[in-house]
Amino acid sequence: MKKHIAIDLGAESGRVIVGDVGKIEVVHRFPNLPVRVGGSLHWDLLGAFAEIKRGLKEAFARYPGQIASLGLDTWGVDFALLDRSGELIGNPYHYRDGRTDGVPEELFRLVPKRELYAITGAQIMQINTIYQLYAFSRRHPELYRAAAHFLHIPDLFTYWLTGVMRNEYSIATTSQLFDPTRRNWAIDLIRRIGLEPSHFGEIVMPGTVIGPLSSSVAQEVGAQSGVVVVAPGCHDTASAVAAIPTTGGDFAYLSSGTWSLLGIESPTPIITDKSFSYNFTNEGAADGGIRFLKNIMGLWIVQECKRAWNAEGRESTYAELTRMAEEHGPAGFSIDPDDPRYLKPGSVGDTMPERLLGHCREGGQPLPSGQGAIVRGVLESLAAAYRQTVGMIEEISGRRVSELAIIGGGSQNGLLCRLAAEALGIPVTAGPVEATAIGNIMLQQIALGEIASIAEGRRLVRDSHEVLRYAPKG
Predict the structure, then answer these.
(1) Which of 27, 66, 402, 410 registers the highest number of CB atoms within 10 A of its CB?
(2) For 147-272, where are the alpha helices, taking DSSP H only?
(3) What span, in angstroms and rounded, lies between the C-alpha atoms of 418 and 420?
């Protein structure tokens, strides 16, 4: 049987994974962390590309002559600019960099917020590509004038693997520079805010064969001839949602990791006064439809707490922190996970635990004591945010949500899954953990005619991978 490679890069780590929809194997893991240079936060994309090739070399050595294709997915919104010869311009920034502080308000003077939402259907978040690119074009006009091509991060890596520049649909929809109704770049908007429309290239749908590995990359990683690169859902959540092992249409999904992306599938965009007021977004789905969702801060807060505690010498694994939270019981405090104070990485004297304590002091809440209490409060607050968000979805869409499907790394957190089931009062399914890689591979197999449809792929996932169920109390 043919095998396929999913390259899955998240905000903390990357993996190179081999297999098919029924069975996968991680052959290489590597950290994917930002680098601070001169006060700015960047991605180390060259280092990540070296790790990708290291993983590919291992995969082709382990399965000689068996691999038919590969596909790559990453987080959303971040991008690279290239010059006319295809060379990278500068070090791409991290979405948590501070250069977008105050930029949305500046841009709204050119395009009012409600009008911007009517065009793009995108959640207003200062991390969005539109604010990053607008800030870059004004802070570094000489570099922007040198640009000829715009690529999101997975499109850049795909270009480096193939020599072919394409913009994939699902990742393009995270930019707030895309018109989901017309399924293309919002060219009038791009021109209106002073950006160059010619930078934005052809958009392809998930499951498109981009081309063969370039001869230089193939030689370097030991790939046989005929291996092609497929654009999966290049936004990791698009690939992950494709792999949800559901049988019905009345479910909501939660892609749980650094961010919590909670939403439903829709054949068409949902752009209304209510969706605007609740700040929902319309992102591209693997089938060419829409993932109507809300971005919630997610487990980033726990990750940053862990990083601060590790620096103090109080090192614990995520599993140990979750056990402490379980043993602690109800936390006695709550936070708004989307409070802007939690967006940026912590620093000396301003760590994430200190920000949480400051939040409690401001609100007159009991101060959590110990790691378990803090983690428990964050998880309870996330579950409460999920309940509120599902209520908004039902109000906006007129659809009743009867089940929540949690996928991604957060599906391994049994406490979070149980708290979500209790908060929402509906069953929760958890898994598969590697939904993103499975969905990535599924779309490759569809592109090569090995699987007929996403529905068939979901059936195969359901028959092959473990899914846990959490029932609400009562």
Answers:
(1) 410
(2) 153-162, 169-172, 187-192, 215-221, 236-242
(3) 5
Catalytic residue among 20, 73, 78, 236: 236
Number of Cβ atoms within 10 Å of the Cβ of 65: 8
Examine the pLDDT at 11 and tell me if it is beyond 90.
no
| Mean pLDDT to the nearest integer, 153-169 | 98
Burial grade of 64 (CB within 10 A; 0-12, 13-18, 19 or more): exposed
Question: Nearest-5° angle of CA 394, CA 397, CA 400?
Answer: 40
- Quick check: helix, strand or coil at residue 464? helix
| Contact partners, residue 319, CB within 8 Å, separation at least 6 | none
- Evaluated on CA atoms 342, 343, 346, 347, the torsion sign reads negative
Place of tokens 């240079």: 37
Nearest to 329 by CA among 366, 383, 380, 367: 380
Statement: residue 474 has pLDDT above 70: no
Q: Is residue 236 annotated as a catalytic residue, yes or no? A: yes
Q: Round the CA-based radius of gyration of the chain to a whole number and report it.
A: 21
User: In the chain, what are the domains?
Assistant: 3-236 (3.30.420.40), 246-430 (3.30.420.40)
pLDDT at 128 over 70: yes
How far is residue 43's CA from residue 13's CA, in Å, rounded to a whole number? 12
Task: Name 408's bridge partners.
Answer: none
Q: Which two structure tokens, joined as six digits, stand for 169?
A: 């649909």
